[in-house]
Amino acid sequence: MPVNLRPRSAHGPLHLDEAEYEALVRRNAGGWSACASETEWLAKLHYLRSGLAEGKLERAEFEKREARLVLAWLQRLC
């Protein structure tokens, strides 16, 4: 079943098959928060947000991990 990484985006959905999604969220070269592509970054954001929604992460842990992921992506862009 495909995973939609941009369910609310004005740019439209971005679907990945589940195997590709799992491979992206498991990548950790340079640390889990270091992403090689925007698709990997979106997959990891989706993974964190799904974990929060399913009760697998506490709010504080989610916020810490999300901030680290976003900051790493922004630093990569500069």
Structure description:
This protein is mostly helical. The chain has one domain. Helices cover 56% and strands 5% of the residues. The protein has three helices and two strands. Helix 1 crosses helix 2. The chain is globular and about 30 Å long.
Task: Describe the structure concisely for a colleague.
The chain is mainly alpha-helical.
- Count of DSSP E strands? 2
Helix content: 55-70%
Average pLDDT: 95
User: What is the ordering of alpha helices and beta strands?
Assistant: EEHHH
Strand order of the largest sheet: 1-2
Task: Quickly count the helices.
Answer: 3
Which features does this protein show?
single chain; 3 helices; two-stranded antiparallel ribbon; 2 strands
How is this fold's topology laid out?
Blueprint: E1 3-4, E2 15-16, H1 18-26, H2 38-53, H3 59-77
Antiparallel strand pairs: 1-2
Helix pairs in contact: 1-2, 2-3
